[in-house]
Amino acid sequence: MDATSAPHRIPPEMPEYGEANHIFEMMQVGKLRPREGKDLLVMCRTMLEQLLIFQPKDPIPFMIDHLQRDNDNVPKIVILGPPASGKTTIAMWLCKHLNSNLLTMENLMAKKFSQLAAEATRHYQKSKTVPIRLLVRLIQERLNDEECVRRGWILDGIPETREQALMIQSLGITPRHVIVLSASDTVLIERNMGKRIDPRTGEIYHTTFDWPPESEIQNRLIEPEGISELETAQKLLEYHRNIVRIMPSYPKILKVISSDQPCVDVFYQALTYVQTNHRSNAPFTPRVLLCGPVGSGKSLQAALLAQKYGLVNVCCGQLLKEAVADKSRFGELIRPFFEKKMAVPDNIILKVLTKRLNQQDCIQRGWVIHGYPRDLDQAHLLESLGHKPNRVFFLNVPLDSVIERLTLRRTDPVTGERYHLMYKPPPTMEIQARLLQNPKDAEEQVKLKMDLFYRNSADLEGFYTRAITINGDQDPYTVFEYIESGIINPLPKKVP
């Protein structure tokens, strides 16, 4: 169909949309270019559909808002660096430029109406540290906020240790870009020792690089705590000890930038990097499907695959949450089911999933799907729409192991901390006495879900005849190695 044909224009009986037609015409002749990676015709059809459905009084701001609401490629950035490297300044500038959310230890703990934030604050006031599990759950809570889902996020100085990095990954939180700022210890110590703070305004100055011209401000500046040469050297030693163990956790998505140069130059190097798309290491474009019962570790394996091979991590549950947070047309259909805690109908799930898989990043980079399809009918529908996986893995976990993983999970209603009676028992009897179990983790519910999965798994295995079955009842990184070998190596040929 020609790009200028009638279906891509707004009907003449709607004269108030003349400006919208003008915009479409400018796009089609190349005078107004759509965002990189968006197909022109698909975008025009989608915008026209939205205009016809909502019929806004002023279509121009409506279309601009529609374009800006696309959260498929929002920033997901981690910025790390030693003391005085300027990482917070760079993170703030990137947030302003990319219209994203800056997440620091301070603003994570400052979140209102959050039990986790309150608990983290109490720990920090006592020991100047936050337990790893509490910090990671606090990050997860913040990233689930609508603002982070829609506009993305930049983590400033987190993770601080390899343990934090691995635990963040285990929850499926994977950045698209990681920046590590570096400079010699001599330069960093000199920078840190020159810091001065205005006790009245909280502004930070420097004796060499940013000294205030007003004598009144100069006279009231004080030296902040913890910036002596010895204290700075101790912090640097701890940082160097940790960063060499963190960096291997982010292969292929990490860039080291020297911070021993003007701050503006550092910023533009960082901005250029976070605006690039990573090339995949895969020998072909992977379209991976992970099947397995509840508690089999599908989410973790999908996150690891997405990080290493640059695939798009397509979690059906997360797609539905994003649609609701985005207040899109599908989101408004999904919201009532969420509010009533009912299952979302298959036809709505399929529409949301198909829309995501048709986008340019999924086509170019490949994808890994988990949570769908759950039965033979869904598998047929998915393939009929042209989304056929070229690698399918079944994670096989015995019922006893799943029951052990899920039914022994408990939550502290006071602090929100999660425990596992076998792998992470509560530290005191007082805490153990008040622990609660989520109703969905009850043994009857787990058995019901397991029975439902295995009732359909035989049909799915028959449909995906070249699927690879993997023992999921072992260390998750061992499972990942088996999955990775199944992606890299050619599929075995059946001997007639």
Describe the structure.
The protein is of the alpha/beta class. 50% of the residues lie in helices and 12% in strands. Strands 2-3-1-4-7 form a five-stranded parallel β-sheet. Strand 12 and strand 13 (418-420) form a beta hairpin. Helix 4 (87-98) packs across helix 13 (263-274). The relative contact order is 0.09. The model is unreliable at 1-39 (pLDDT under 50).
**Secondary structure tally: strands:** 14
Please report which band the strand proportion falls in: under 5%, 5-15%, 15-25%, 25-35%, 35-45% or over 45%.
Answer: 5-15%
Assembly annotation: single chain
| Shape by Cα distribution | globular
Question: How widely separated are the two ends?
Answer: 45 Å
Stretches with pLDDT under 50, minimum 5 residues? 1-39
Major sheet description? 5 strands, parallel
Structural class by SSE content = alpha/beta
Which SSEs are present, and which pair or pack?
Elements: H1 18-28, H2 40-54, H3 59-68, E1 76-80, H4 87-98, E2 101-103, H5 105-109, H6 115-127, H7 132-143, H8 146-151, E3 153-156, H9 162-170, E4 177-182, H10 185-193, E5 195-197, E6 204-206, H11 215-220, H12 229-246, E7 254-258, H13 263-274, E8 287-291, H14 298-309, E9 312-315, H15 316-326, H16 329-339, H17 346-357, H18 360-365, E10 367-370, H19 376-384, E11 391-396, H20 399-407, E12 409-411, E13 418-420, H21 429-434, H22 443-463, E14 468-471, H23 476-488
Parallel strand pairs: 1-3, 1-4, 2-3, 4-7, 8-10, 8-11, 9-10, 11-14
Antiparallel strand pairs: 5-6, 12-13
